[in-house]
Amino acid sequence: MTHWLPWIVGAYLLGSVPFGLLIARAKGIDLRAQGSGNIGATNVGRVLGKRLGITCFALDLAKGAAPVIASGLTTHTFGHGALAARDSALWMCVGLAAVLGHVFPIYLRFKGGKGVATAFGAMAAYWPWMTLATAAALLTWLVVVRTTRYVSAASITAALVLPLAMLINQLIAWPTGTDGARNAAAGWPFLAMALALGALVIWRHRGNLARLRAGSEHKIGAKVR
Fold first, then answer.
1. Suppose 149 and one of 21, 85, 181, 219 were both cysteines; which one would form an S-S bond, judging by CB atoms 3.0 to 4.6 Å apart?
2. pLDDT tens, 57-76?
3. Residue 91 lies in a domain
C-alpha cells in the first residue's frame, strides 16, 4: 500500500487540474459563466471552437492515462495479464482517483466536470485488462455522437456499454482452470471499476437526461444562451 498511495494521491491532484478552465482563462473567458457552465471539453468547444475543444479533450484524457501508465510501469503491473487481485485493485484506485479529481477537484471546491474524457484515458491505459472494452465504449460514443449530435447521449450510452463489454471480455478471454480462476479474481476489480465509473458518468449526466426527455438538450454546433 505504501507503494501505491503516492500514485493514488498524485492521480487525484493531476485529475483535479481544470484544463478547460485554464484554456478559457488564457483567452480571457470564465468558462463557468459561458455556455453550459461546465469546465469540460464539450463546453470548451462550444464556447471557444472545435480546435480548443479537442485540445481540452486530449489533455483531460491524458491526465487520466498518465498516472495509470506511470504507476503500472513502476510497479510492474502495466502490460501483465496475470496480476494478484490486490495489485489490480490498488492499480484500479489510481485511475479512479484521477477521474474523481476531475469530477470533484480540490482546486475548485470540488465542483468539476463530468469525467468522460478522463475516464476514457484512465480505462484505456489499463493494458491489457480494460483497453478493448474501453475501445468498444469509445466506438459507441463516436457512433452515437455522429448519429444524434448529442454528446450527453453518447456519454450515457458508452457508460452502459463499458461494463457489459468488460464482462464479455472477461468471460471470453480468460481460460478455465487454476489460471483462469486467478485471472478472474484479478479481473473483478476492473469490472467493478467499469460499473462504478459508468454509474458516476450517468449520475453526472442526470440533468442532461432530463433535458433529453424534455427535448431541450443542446446538440453539437448549437449555441447555448
1. 219
2. 999 999 999 999 999 999 98
3. yes
